[in-house]
Amino acid sequence: MNQKLDLSFKPWQGFYLAFYSRDFWREAVKKWQGFGFGFYAYIVFINTILGTLVILFATGYFIDSFILPNINSMPDFNVQNGVMEYKSNKPFKFIPDNSDVVFLYINPNDDQYDKKVNAFVQVSPKHYFLNKLAGTNVNTSSSMPQTIESNTYPNNYNINKDSFIKFLKFLKLLPLLLIALYPIVLVLGILTLFIQGAIINLFVSSYNLTYNQVVRIAVIAATPNHILAAPLMLLELLCKIKLGILTFVIWIIYLVLIIRAQAKNDYTLPGTTT
User: Fold this and answer.
1) Secondary structure (3-state) at 179
2) Which of 13, 14, 122, 170 has the CB geometry, 3.0–4.6 Å to 129, for a possible disulfide?
3) Parallel, antiparallel, or unpaired: how do β-strands 127-133 and 92-94 relate?
4) Across the 274 residues of the chain, what is the mean pLDDT of every consecutive 10-residue run?
5) 8 Å CB contact between 110 and 122
6) Is 98 left (phi over 0), alpha (psi -120 to 50) or beta?
C-alpha cells in the first residue's frame, strides 16, 4: 500500500499544497507511482486522529457539563438483587439545558410509568422503562406516538451511584476505540476511489490520462475534505448546522480544478519534458 513516490514535493507537504498548488496537482497526477494510496493512507490516518479528538471533546463536554452535575446532585441509589434502593422519597428528574425532554426520571414510589412526565428513561423500584421515541427524534413531546418497554432488573445487577459515575467517566474515553477502525475506513475509502476513478474516467478522455492517474486525481481532490473533516464536525456540533452538502461541493470544485490543471502546458515536471 505504501507507494514509492518520486516527488519534488515531500509527501507531508501535500496536506496543505493540495488546497492551492497547481504544480503539486500536476506532479501528483503525472509522476506518482501506482494509485497514490500511500499518500491517501497518511491523509485518512490524520483524519481519523483529528476526528477522534473532536468526538472525545464533544463526549467529554456533554458528560462533564450535563450528565455528571445532575448525577452528582441526586441522592445515593443502589440496585441489587433486582431491586433499587433510593435514599429519598422525592422523585428525581434529569433535564439537560436547552431541552424540554426529561431524559431520566427516578420514581422511588411507584412501578408504573408516569406518562405525565414522559421521560426517555424511568427508573423505579423493581422496573426500568424505556420510552421508544417516534423515529429518531429525541426532542419529542407527550403528543407524539410512543412505545414504553418495561424491564425488570436482572438479579446479577449491582449498580450504585459511585459505580455509575465511574462508568460515565469511562465512556468519555470510549471514542479512542475509533482509531481501531482506521484499517476498515482505509479499505472502504480505497474501494470508493476505484469506483470514483471509473466514473471520472468517462468524462476526461480528452486529457489522455491513464486510469492510475485518474484515481490519483480522486485522491488529491479528496484531501481538502479529509483535512477539513474534523473542523467541520466541530462546527456542526457547536453551531448545530448540517454541512454535508458543503463537503460534496468542495470535492467537486477541487476535482474540476485538478483536472483542468492537467491541460496546462506551462509547467515542466522535474525529470520530464512537456
Assistant:
1) helix
2) 122
3) unpaired
4) 56 89 92 90 93 89 84 85 86 78 86 85 88 55 61 82 87 88 94 94 88 95 92 81 85 94 59 36
5) no
6) left
Phi, psi of 148 (to 5 degrees): -95, 125
Neighbours of 139 (CB within 10 A): 9
Predicted confidence at residue 146, as pLDDT, reads 65
Phi, psi of 10 (to 5 degrees): -70, 145
Among 176, 145, 187, 156, CA closest to 82: 156
Question: d(Cα 6, Cα 28) in Å, to the nearest integer?
Answer: 9
For the chain, the residue count is 274
CA angle 91, 92, 93 (to 5 degrees): 125
CB atoms within 10 A of CB 167: 10
Strand-pair category, 121-123 with 127-133: antiparallel
- Please provide residue 78's backbone torsions phi and psi, each rounded to the nearest 5 degrees: -150, 130
In the numeric block, the cell 471520472 is attached to: 200
The full DSSP string for 190-249 is: HHHHHHHHHHHHTT-GGGT--HHHHHHHHHHHHHHHHHHHHHHHHHHHHHT---HHHHHH
At residue 7, the pLDDT reads: 57
* Among 172, 168, 179, CA closest to 52: 179
* Grid cell 507531508 in the structure block, residue: 12
First-to-last alpha carbon distance for the chain, in angstroms, is 30
The cell for 174 is: 470510549
Sign, Cα dihedral of 35, 39, 43, 46: positive
